[in-house]
Each structure stands twice: as C-alpha cells, then as structure tokens.
Amino acid sequence: MSDEKQNPQLEEKEPLTETELNEQRQVRIEKMQKMVEAGFKPFGHKFVWTHHAKEIEEQLDSLAESETEVKLAGRVMAIRGHGKTAFLDLMDKTGKIQLYVRKDVLGEDNYALIKLMDIGDIVGVTGTAFRTHMGEVSIRTTALDILSKSLRPLPEKWHGLKDVEMRYRQRYVDLIVNPGVRETFMRRSQIIRSVREILDNKDFLEVETPIMHSIAGGAAARPFITYHNALDMELYLRIAPELYLKRLIVGGLERVYELGRVFRNEGIDIKHNPEFTMVEIYQAYADFNDLMALTETIVSQTAQKVLGTMKITYEGTEIDLTPSWERLTMIEAVAKYTGVDFAGVRDLAEARKLADSINVPYKENFGVGKIINACFDEHVEDKLIQPTFITGHPKEISPLAKSSEADPEITDRFEGYVFGRELCNGFTELNDPIDQKERFLKQVEERESGDEEANMMDEDFVTALEYGLPPTGGLGIGIDRLVMFLTDSNSIRDVLLFPHMRQK
Fold first, then answer.
1. Residue 147 sits in the same domain as residue 182
2. What pTM does this model have?
3. Is there a domain that residue 205 lies in?
C-alpha cells in the first residue's frame, strides 16, 4: 500500500509563482466553503489523542493483537485514492504513519470529506493499528475529523540557496517540511536541559537579573538603546548579565548562573545574531582554572548525554570534546602559528614592528595588549580546530579580569575555541574595587575617543566590590555556538527558531 503514487502536489518541482500560489489558495478556500456546506467545520475544536505515530510503531504488536482503539492527530502530507479506498500519510511531531481509509467503514458522507482535503490539512484520526502486507505500519481508520484547513500549499522541499532566506523567514513552514530541522530544535532543548542539570547538580542556583540596564556593561559590545517614558531615562538591552550576577556573589549566594538572551548591536553573519543565548556562571572561592574544568565538564557531558559520544563530527571534521583540552597562552599561540614572539614585549614601537612583520593592521590607539590580540585574531583563531583554551589575555582587553600574580599586565582569563570559533569566555574576577575603578576610567577614556564597545563606568558595581567580593571564577558559554557544534549546523541561523532578518 505504501508504494502507490504520491499526490502530484508533493512531487518535486519548481517553486510556485506568486500567481500560482494565489490560484491554489483560492481553490483551497473554495474547498473550505464546500466543507461548510457539507456540514463539516474546517477549523475544529479540541481533539483528545491517545498516541503519537512513533509510539504506535513501537507498540504495534500489542496494539494490533488487542485491536486497541487509538487516536492521533497531525498534518496530512500525502493523499492517494482509488475510488472506495484512500491512503493518507499523517505526520505528527514524532514522524509519519499511513492511514487506511475505506468508504464502507467511514460512511459515504464522511468519506466525501477526503475529496475536499489538501496536503497540509490537520486532522484527528480514530482507528486500530495494523501492518500492511507491504510491511507498513498503518491505521485502519474508523473516524476522520478535520481540525484545521490549510489554505496555502506546502512545498515538498526548499529549492536551493534562493529559498534559504525564506526558510528562516517562514520557520513554521520549514519545520513542517524538513524533519531534520525539527530534530535540530528538539536537540537544542535537550542541550539546554543538560546544561541546567549539570549546574543544578553542582549546587548552582539559577537566577534572573534585569534585561534592561541603566548602564551597558559586562562585555565589550555595542548595546541596543531604548527609552523608559515614566523614568525619563535611556535604558540598554543587556549585553551581558555579568555585573548583576557578581553583585549576587557579593550578597553571599556563592554559586549562581543565568541562562537567557543577551543583545548586541553588531553585524549579522553565520556566527552572529543581534540577540543570542548565553549561560553565565559564577563560583565564589574559585579561579579561572576551576571554571575551565567546569567548561570541559559541561560541554563533554552534554555531548555524551545528547549524542551518546564525546567525539563529534562538525563540517566533516572529527572533534574530540573529551577532557582535558589543550591549553596555550595567547602569546604562546601567536608564536606557535606565526613564529613571532611577544614574550616580554612592553615597548609599543617594538609591538608595532612585530605586527607589521606579519601584516596585522592596528589602530593608532592600540596598546601592546590590543596589538597582541589583533595578531591572535588574524593568524591564530581559525586554526584552533580541536578544543583549546587560550589563556593569558592582556589586561588592556580584559577590564573585568584579575591580573596574574606572575605578570600584572596579563590576566587570569581564558577563552575556549572549537573549530576556530570562540565557544566561551571566563576569568578569575577582579575583586579589587580600586583597580576596577581605574580600569573603568580607562574604558571611559577609550569610549570618549570613539570606541563604542568600551565599558561604561558603573559606580554601583564599584560600590558593591567595596563591600567585598570573595575570590570568584566566572564563565560565559554561548549556547547557540554549542548547539551548532552538537547538531553539525554551519550557521547560527540554523539553530535559532526565528533569526533576525533584513526587512523585505
């Protein structure tokens, strides 16, 4: 029964033109009107289902033997008919199942409903499960209810690059016709659940902090600006929850995390979206080494839980997430991949000369630290394929991180890279309020000189530090990047249900 000819609407063909879409929509509206005339309600009410398609397949032997009545609901994806018998493919969130419908069982009036149905209609089905002589799991249908009439035709598949943008704009259609997309977002939910479970089991407390901030801080990024009428003040959508979470550590909560959206007014590409999901984690009486170990635990155990392995394949490359990950300082990494060694360099002219030797551009206001970071960005980042922690970031680019005891110009900070992309950022938190205020003032100078991503002065945060922040390790992991790696997705848009798009 399953090898009979599919409905022509589902055969592979070129996308419909706007005129053709309008014509088909009108035909469907006319069918809807005929449904009403025949006594059917094209937009039905509650339907109580008992099973999903996958459950019926898994329980088929017992359901068939006992002739248990089953009820399921979903979308019609194919219609095949031969006079007094029809075959429909029904799709729900777990998969497809065939409906075997006979006129003499359903009754002439109810059987007539099938002629008024289209691909995409949502129906409720009652019947018994069995396996056809072709081996296909099917439902011997005893009742068929229309629950929602689809007024627009579904594409069988999206056609090439010109429709990629449409997939993102009309994600609801993408989810209907592409099972792999549904699988990606189900896996995203599993990944987020795993991250929460790991942190909860380690006695971290999940908290919620403001999304609208009076001061944009906690990261080097351009904020979105809004305005509160009643308070007569500008507010910023948060670029990070960091400074509020550290206030909670001051207050004695010791282990906290927040998993939620952050907003950065930056460019859009395959790695960036103006709003994205992060988990930020803070642990009192810990340092950046503890947070690197926690990162390894979260990523590797989540991969094991969701995929059943710590070895993943991303864009054809096998990546081993098993701890422990390689660790290099930023200066070591630049030396390894360029041959240029910044160790001990303090003189700006010397740093510029080294950057010139490997053709790395820099701005006039860049100090030695920013020049080292520019060399890393230009020549190193895309070569870090296997999981790698880069440590020893210059103080100049790390305004919230604690300086290293060995070198005050270097901080106890780390970034985790996989497949040449930053996955996380963390450090031993700066808890000296005097040092923090000086760094904020330096950031204010940079902001006044034109750096829109520099931190703003946050006097209240400095006040909080003056009450005493215990030694603390902090960490932020990009959830979207993690989902990309664990679902083998090339673009961040593939793991965001509704990515931001330019207006048509």
1. no
2. 0.91
3. yes
CA separation for the pair 94, 398 (Å, rounded): 47
Nearest of 263, 265, 259 to residue 276 by alpha carbon? 263
- Both tokens of residue 125? 């089905």
Question: CATH number, domain at 78?
Answer: 2.40.50.140
pLDDT of residue 81: 84
pLDDT for 8 equals: 41
In a domain, 337, yes or no: no
Residue 280 lies in a domain: yes
Burial of 159 (C-beta count, 10 Å sphere; 0-12/13-18/19+): middle
Query: How far apart are the C-alpha atoms of 77 and 154, rounded to whole Å?
Result: 9
CA–CA dist 174, 497 (Å, integer): 10
Helix, strand, or coil here: 134?
coil
Based on the number of CB atoms within 10 Å of its own CB, is 400 exposed (0-12), middle (13-18) or buried (19 or more)? buried
Number of neighbouring beta carbons within 10 Å of residue 291: 25
- On whether both 79 and 221 belong to a single domain, the answer is no
Which of 156, 185, 215 finishes a domain? Answer: 156
Share of the chain residues as helix, strand and coil, in percent rounded to the nearest 5: 40, 25, 35
| Domain termination site, one of 90, 124, 156 | 156
By the 8 A CB rule, do 174 and 85 touch?
A: no
How much is the pLDDT for 451?
A: 82
Q: Give yes or no: residues 148 and 234 share one domain.
A: no
My answer on whether omega of the bond before 324 falls inside 30° of 0, hence cis, is yes
Residue 450's domain comprises: 177-325+386-494
- Sheet bearing 255-263, strands edge to edge: 205-206, 255-263, 275-284, 472-478, 421-428, 413-418, 388-391, 326-329
Residues 55, 466: Cα–Cα separation, whole Å: 59
Note the pLDDT of residue 3: 37
What per-residue confidence (pLDDT) applies to 136?
A: 95
Confidence (pLDDT) at 13: 57
- Under-70 pLDDT residues of the chain: 1-14, 157-162
Burial 129-146 (b: 16+ CB within 10 A, else e): beeeeeeebbbbbeebbb
Same structural domain for residues 286 and 146?
no
